[in-house]
Specification:
The protein has six helices and no strands. Helix 2 runs antiparallel to helix 3 and helix 3 runs antiparallel to helix 4. 72% of the residues lie in helices and 0% in strands. The protein is mostly helical. It starts with a helix and ends in a 6-residue tail after the last helix. It has a single domain, classed as Alpha Horseshoe (Serine Threonine Protein Phosphatase 5, Tetratricopeptide repeat). The longest helix is centred in the N-terminal third of the chain and has 26 residues.
């Protein structure tokens, strides 16, 4: 499980920084500096790259014969591509509606993995919460949801779906 812990921690940090920005905390550029969204974009880009690397590692390090880890690698790829696109969009100051469009399949298609997590209530609930988070991103990019509401959703996402898992694992608590 260690590679997955990396995904949770690094992607969680990227989500946390996005949440802070959308909550308006540190969202204004200091005089003569670029918008903080550029820094948030770099963090998201690194998270996406790490996600893809971990997905490739899981694929390469596991035997192919019916190893369920390969299914997990596919799920990680969804999120890796999303965070790479988000990061580049923020860094290059592109139209975020494209990221909103990408958020829709990123929200819905991973529901196919519900059976993969059927033995874990925690991971099932996380996957369902991510549907809400990603659809909220789409709504916000099209002006249908206030950015601060997205910030609250992303902060909940960072704390309870990304940070909590590695903390519980470090403390030796079984994930239900």
């Amino acid at each position: 499980m260690p590679p997955i812990t990396m995904v949770f921690v690094i992607t969680g940090l990227a989500v946390f920084v996005q949440a802070m920005f959308f909550l308006g905390i540190g969202a204004n550029a200091a005089e003569g500096k670029k918008s903080p969204i550029v820094s948030a974009g770099w963090i998201a880009l690194v998270a996406g790259i790490v996600d893809l690397i971990v997905g490739i590692y899981i694929t390469a390090a596991r035997p192919i014969d019916a190893d369920p880890s390969l299914l997990l690698a596919g799920l990680i790829a969804f999120y890796g591509l999303f965070f790479i696109a988000l990061g580049l969009t923020e860094i290059l100051d592109l139209d975020l509606r494209v990221v909103g469009n990408l958020a829709i399949p990123t929200a819905i298609l991973p529901l196919a993995w519900l059976n993969f997590f059927s033995g874990s209530t925690t991971f099932t609930l996380i996957l369902i919460w991510w549907v809400i988070a990603f659809l909220s991103i789409a709504l916000t990019t099209y002006g249908k949801m206030k950015p601060k509401v997205l910030g609250i959703i992303l902060m909940i996402t960072a704390i309870f779906t990304f940070f909590l898992i590695p903390v519980l694992l470090v403390l030796g608590v079984a994930i239900p």
